[in-house]
Structures are given as structure tokens and as C-alpha cells.
Known about the structure:
- The protein is 28% helix and 32% strand.
- The chain has 3 helices and 9 strands; from the N terminus they run αβββββαβαβββ.
- The termini are far apart.
Amino acid sequence: MTKVWHEADYMRALMSRASSELPHVRLFRRNVGMTSVGGRTFRSGIKGQCDLYVLARGGWYGEVELKRYTKLSEDQERWRDWCNQWGVPWVCLSVSKGEEPAATLARWCGELRQFVPGAVCQDVPSGDVKARVKVGKPLEFRAGDGDLVLDRDEE
């Protein structure tokens, strides 16, 4: 029996695949909703915010909405419009009916490659990229094999 893929399955698979196909781009899941803990209710996010947000090397940021056979809700349309008004890059990646999940993921990675500015997707020059933060003891952030490494200098 063939597994039925839900939007969350596509999201997890995209996050995994994009990390290897787009090494200078990171996708992060955004949780939007409400939960109750110990009798208190907490809201996370803003209604309509995208499923994912993108951070790319150099500080580029964008919003990614995923859709599996549905349209944007009114809240999602408002979020899209707000992003457009504020100049925040926004894209909707949709599953095409009859398309195999592997084909969808390959297409989405191609669409993300077009969405993220080309200069960000270039190879990193030789040597580590370094940035210093001066709070208490200096921290050093090094971009190594595509993952962020946090080191504390010993002085």
C-alpha cells in the first residue's frame, strides 16, 4: 500500500533534502497556534504566518508557505500581502496532483534555488567565515561544513 503524504511529511522531507541540495540555505519550521500548559494558554506565532522561514548565508531572509491540494486561507493571504508590503520575500510551494513526492521535492528545491538570491547560493570562499560577538567573553561563530559551530575563545 502506498503511503499518503501529508503536508507535514512534505515539510520534514523538504527541510532534510534542502539542507544538502542548498548548503548555504537553512529552512526552519514555524509553529503557529495555541497550547495550554499548567492551566495557562500560550499563543505562538501570528495566524497566517508561513510554515517555514529561510535564512541564507549573508543574512538573507524569506518566507515559505507549503500547500498540498489547498488554497491559502484568509489569514495566510493577509500574511502574504503584509510580506509583499514590507518587501519580505514570500513564496508558496504547492504539491501538484499526481506528482510523486520525490518529484515534488526535487521541483521544490529547484524553486527554492530560484527564490533565494543567486549570490547567496555560491560556494563559500576557502577558509571559515567568522563573526565575533563582544558580550562578556568573545564568542566565535564558524561556518564549517554547512553547520554553525559555537566556540568560546579561551584567553
